[in-house]
Amino acid sequence: MFLQCHYFSFVLGTNVEINVIIPTPEGNEQITGAQKTDRYDYEKGLPVVYLLHGAYGDNNSWMRFSSVERYAQAHNCIAVMAGVTNSFYQDMVHGPKYFTFMTQELPAYITELFPASKKREDTYIAGFSMGGYGAYYLALSRPDLYCKTASMSGALDLPETIRGALQNTAESPFAIRDIFANPEHIEGSPQDLMHLVKENLNKGTLPKLYQACGTEDFLYRSNQKIHKELMDLGVDVTYREVEGYGHAWDFWDREIERIFDWFLEK
User: Positive or negative CA dihedral for 173, 176, 179, 180?
Assistant: First the structure.
């Protein structure tokens, strides 16, 4: 079941559109009463995967360019997609509060209206590019909400990304000074992923991490750097480098199927 929902967001102060996939006994399955009982326990609550888009994207990106509906169906989970423009999933200094929307209002909406589990151990988040940063940022900032998080081709080194954006403002899709209060001082701040990793390590609250990048991706070197920093901290991260792939949907569609397997492994 694919649903496109329009509703008023009190946090964002405007109408929003989200996409929700609910698994149903259809597609390649043989529909029987037993399968409905065994595979679609709506009363108990289904696992939920939040899928984040990259720069220039929106809530329709995953539906347009990937086979995510088939993957959610095969894994018997709900998939949720929302749009946050080019905000890096922040509560913007001059703009909407997307972090609050993603971590408070949207989960409340999903768990109240759909057969979604409210348990942390059933809640996952993944994204690519800007959304790869976003998946880590939301999960590390609110480890009480998500048990696993995955990044594909992620802009994980935010200080480096911001330096580049400030130096080339004409080419950057990000209104950096509208998003961040002190963009020159991101390193060590609550927006810096490595700062958040260290905080979670100290508290024992670190979600499980998955990181993947193609070797031809322009973010490949920065992903290698972040992976090394995670290894130096002793973080147990599932890490994949895939030969020949760049910053494109042929990689993300292939990888997200693996991530669904990793999220929902028995």
Answer: positive
What's the burial of 99, exposed, middle or buried (CB within 10 Å: 0-12/13-18/19+)? buried
The residue type at 59: N
CA-CA distance, 215 to 15, in Å (whole number)? 39
Do the Cβ atoms of 179 and 173 come closer than 8 Å?
no
Domain span at 51:
2-263
Domain count, the chain: 1
pTM attached to this predicted model: 0.94
CATH number for position 159: 3.40.50.1820
Q: Say how far apart CA 73 and CA 8 lie, in whole Å.
A: 28
Mean pLDDT of the region 85-102: 97
Per-residue HEC secondary structure of 86-106 comes to: CCCCCECCCCCEHHHHHHHHH
* CA distance between the termini of the chain: 24
For 140, phi then psi, to 5°, come to: -75, -30
How far apart (Å, rounded) are the C-alpha atoms in residues 145 and 139? 7
Amino acid at 142: R
Question: Of 224, 205, 208, 200, nearest to 263 (Cα)?
Answer: 208
Q: Considering only CA atoms, which of 17, 21, 15 is closest in space to residue 2?
A: 21
- Please report which confidence band the pLDDT of residue 139 belongs to, taking 50, 70 and 90 as the band edges: very high
